[in-house]
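Let's practice the habit of predicting before peeking. Look at the sequence and jot down your guess about where helices and strands might fall. Then scroll down.
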Amino acid sequence: MSKAIQSSEAAALWYIRLRDAEPDAPERGEFERWLTTSPVHQAEYESICSTMDQLASPKSLAKLADAMEQNAFLEKSAKRQKVVKHIAHVVAICAVGLFALFANKQYEIWLQQPTAQIVADTPVGNIAMRTLDDGSRVTLSGNSQMEVKFYRHQRHVHLMRGEAIFDVAKDANRPFVVETELAKVTVLGTRFAVNKLSKLVRISVDHGSVRVEPIMPKSEAADNAKLLTNGQVVEVYPNQTAVITQRRAADAFAFVNGKLVFEWADTYEVADTLSRYRARPVVADGQSSHNISAIVSVQDAEEFLQGLPNIAPVIVHNQTKQTVIESANTKL
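Done guessing? Here is the structure:
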């Protein structure tokens, strides 16, 4: 510590000690000896006294109070600036988060906007082929209906009624999805058929790979999905089970050539299929028979229907608005 600082501190201590001391106090003699030891001591003591006298005046006290308030204000301002900066930082983070959410939402909305949309159906007895915007070809059986929606991330077909063959153009960035009430079929590029019957949905693959998921909660659908390849057939039932069968996949494509193939079909499948080629619909009633196997020309469908009792235990009732295939064991 320098001598000047030591002298200043000593002068301040002497000022404090002598402020309330009596005129004849013993320490005054000691103070006089310290004061006369060096001119520096005298200068420091006079400086201390002058400063304290100035502070003791009302004007000086007011200035000091103002200075203290100003110092407190500056401290508060500094704290406030820190808080403001913190809030601004938080607001900036929130703004970025909100922008990201908004951008993501807008992106989802953008993806969900169809780039192309059509609804196609075929009259009873007619087969129609349609080429879609992506080059895929769809062949609809008689009395069938579908809705096609193309999105930027997906090609989607809802088969609402009947039967269709899909020859899908490859597009790795946009999977081709066909849905019914019971099943969801996903492909990238392949040829397959979907037959929507009243009791089940049948998917038959000519070539390529097809993923079939029963319609159920997503957490369960993946576990029950089936991956089909060339020549395989899967059936999806209302109880959400998907079963790979030993049926010939080629049979599903025969209607294009005017043939209807039944392999161990039940009466409900026969009724659904014949209704696509007959003005008066066919319905099945009673206990179903599962032993009907036949290859029928579309033009001979009526003759086959009327002769059905010859090959299966059923009765055919021709009514005004419909024809009923009934089990022979069911009472009218």
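How did you do? The chain has seven helices and 18 strands.
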